[in-house]
From TrEMBL:
This is L-2-hydroxyglutarate oxidase. InterPro entries: FAD-dep_OxRdtase (IPR006076), FAD/NAD-bd_sf (IPR036188). Belongs to the L2HGDH family. The keyword tRNA-binding does not apply. Its cofactor is FAD. GO terms for molecular function: (S)-2-hydroxyglutarate dehydrogenase activity. Keywords: FAD, Flavoprotein, Oxidoreductase. GO terms for cellular component: cytoplasm.
Length: 398
């Protein structure tokens, strides 16, 4: 019997294992992952930004964990020789009508105890010569990294400390009584405590354990283009627009990646499959669950204008280009080549409200990380510490 078993080997699950073994080095730990390698889904399909936490409500888990996680992620990378670049980013107002919202964002950054700099047009152009901006907020702590490398290092560190990593192991049933019995497609695992870090399937794992939550995971596919080598000079670091406060996504932006590429995006559209990375990936189970939800239709009607614009960009490269040209007018259609998409697991309540913060649920002998979208990768080490702290408070530890 294991002391702790973690379902899901994305960066959050691996960080939970890392935290457990740091505080309880003699604990027996198992990590179950249904794919053949770690970080196969959300962790391994993003642009690798180390976020600052500027956008998030002061006092929220997201705001605190992003700020603290930014520092701990940088320290982790330095300690283990993982390439990263704390290059900073600029959030740009492309016209005067966006300046009031940009000022509010600047003030929020200050409330979240971040280093933020207000930049007038001339300063912005010194930083990003090709950008269209009347003003900007610079956030120096933002960085870039390859989260697959971080995850692989976390996995190897846990294994060095005695953890068992089971790959190609899909959970098929869970029985929570005095402890937890987990049946996979290959084996039965007995554990005193289970931690659900299943990401895109976290709600289903929670329900499999016996907890009916007032939420379900809705997958949103983030679609990207990448700049050709001949156009990479148009972007020095990270360039973001002023976000629409009424829409749950940040809008298309430019991200220099740690491998030297430059991504443009993401567009955000409903995924027809929880692990659907192309427009033709469809799961009737996943799609019907969303379409049968009253909450989804309420959400869709409240964001109809923005949602239609996202769908248009999904099927029209010219529409996508138009959005990008608002920030960098020199970008041309021939500068863009399709890049791999990602899928964001977003928790939605039955009334159509999106769960805005990280959402952790305690069971009798289990813990469930049921909402961990961006900035979860940045915050992963802090989420791991928080899960262990909450388990300790509830005496849900061995």
């Amino acid at each position: 019997m294991y002391d702790y078993t973690i379902v899901g080997a994305g960066i959050v699950g691996l960080s939970v294992a890392h935290a457990i073994l740091k505080h309880e080095p003699n604990a027996s730990v198992a990590i179950i992952e249904k794919e053949r390698k770690v970080a196969s889904h959300q962790t391994g399909n993003n642009s690798g930004v180390i976020h600052s936490g500027i956008y998030y409500r002061p006092g929220s888990f997201k705001a605190r964990f992003a700020r603290e996680g930014n520092q701990s992620m940088v320290e982790f990378c330095e300690e283990h020789g993982i390439d990263y670049d704390q290059c900073g980013k600029v959030i740009v107002a492309t016209n005067q009508s966006q300046v009031p919202a940009l000022k509010k964002l600047y003030e929020r950054g200050q409330e979240n105890e971040l280093e933020v700099h207000w930049m007038e047009k001339e300063e912005v152009l010194e930083r990003e010569p090709h950008v269209n901006a009347v003003a900007a907020v610079e956030v120096p702590s933002t960085g870039i990294v390859d989260y697959k490398q971080v995850s692989e290092k976390l996995a190897s560190l846990s294994q060095e400390k005695g953890a068992d990593l089971f790959l190609n192991e899909e959970v098929v049933s869970i029985n929570e009584r005095q402890g937890v019995t987990i049946e996979t497609n290959n084996r039965t695992i007995e554990t005193r405590i289970m931690i659900n870090c299943a990401g895109l399937h976290s709600d289903r794992v929670a329900e499999m354990t016996g907890y009916k939550l007032d939420m379900q995971i809705v997958p949103f596919r983030g679609e990207y283009y990448e700049l050709k080598d001949s156009a990479k000079h148009l972007v020095k670091d990270l360039i973001y627009p002023v976000p629409n406060p009424d829409f749950p996504f940040l809008g298309v932006h430019f991200t220099r990646m740690i491998d030297g590429g430059v991504e443009a995006g993401p567009n955000a559209v409903l995924g027809f499959k929880r692990e659907g990375y192309t427009k033709t990936d469809i799961s009737f189970r996943d799609l019907s669950q969303v379409l049968k939800s009253f909450g989804f239709w309420k959400l869709a009607s409240a964001n109809m204008k923005e949602g239609l614009a996202e769908m248009k960009r999904s099927f029209s490269k010219k529409a996508f280009l138009t959005s990008l040209q608002e920030i960098i007018p020199e970008i041309q259609e021939d500068d863009l080549v399709p890049a791999p998409a990602g899928v964001r697991a977003q928790a939605m309540r039955s009334n159509g409200e999106l769960v805005d913060d990280f959402y952790i649920v305690a069971g009798r002998h289990s813990f469930h990380v049921c909402n961990a979208p961006s900035p979860a990768a940045t915050s992963a080490l802090q989420i791991g510490e928080e899960v262990f702290r909450q388990m300790s408070e509830k005496e849900l530890k061995v």
